[in-house]
Amino acid sequence: MIRPAMNTLVLHGAFQAPARTRTVRPMTADDDGELMLRYVRGDMRAFETLYRKFRGPLYRYLSRHTRDSEIANDLFQEVWSKLIASRDRYEPRAKFSTFIYRIAHNCFIDHYRRSSTRFEKVRREDDDSEVQMPGPRTDHPDERLQYAQTLESYRAALSALPAEQRDVFLLYEESGLSLEEIGTITGVGMETAKSRLRYAVAKLRGALEEAGGAP
């Protein structure tokens, strides 16, 4: 399974110091936004801090969407490349997390529209990075079998969600953003985002209950 790594950015020439510096006055008290502003001014360690903080959640968001580690890795690289390319235009009008997840969301949507294959049908049997579920509590064969069946039901239910519901669910799971911020990223109102999340959770819970694995 391909994991995101900063050296990939280095090899592709994307991880470079800003070509010029400028003074930007923060508009929010967002610590991550301040790190981005420091990177804009040439502080590479600030970028490294942001990368370490967001690489895991961002990759999981993309991987759980696509269910294909190679596509997820390509989109992951694209997100960071676009962030680097847009650094001189960055203004902290919203939280940095909203900014970077909007880039990730747009990268996924653009790729979805370009692709002739629906992501709901894409699957890599050896890639379980999209699922964050606790493992079986014992090595008992019956319990391990139940866990495998529950995991499979969860994967199938997640893939079967309408793209809009899955997007809101994954953003809520991985980004730590509020529903209002998720609505901003996805271009809908907070109530619509809340409704999509509610439907997604209900469908996933129903699938788990049917499989006998819900709490």
- Strand segment tally: 0
What characterizes the major β-sheet?
none
Give the rounded overall mean pLDDT. Answer: 76
Unreliable spans: 6-29, 116-138
Q: Choose one word for the global shape.
A: globular
Question: What proportion of the residues is helical, as a percent range?
Answer: 55-70%
Radius of gyration: 19 Å
State the order of secondary-structure elements, H for helix, E for strand. HHHHHHHHH
Strand percent estimate: under 5%
Category from helices, strands and their pairing: mainly alpha
Helical run tally: 9
N- and C-termini, Cα separation: 29 Å
How does this model look, in words?
By secondary structure, the protein is mainly α. The chain has nine helices and no strands. It has helices at residues 6-11, 31-40, 44-66, 69-85, 96-114, 141-160, 163-175, 179-186, 190-211. The longest helix is centred in the N-terminal third of the chain and has 23 residues, at 44-66. The relative contact order is 0.12.
How are the elements arranged and paired?
Layout: H1 6-11, H2 31-40, H3 44-66, H4 69-85, H5 96-114, H6 141-160, H7 163-175, H8 179-186, H9 190-211
Helix pairs in contact: 2-3, 3-4, 3-5, 3-7, 4-5, 5-8, 6-9, 7-8, 7-9, 8-9
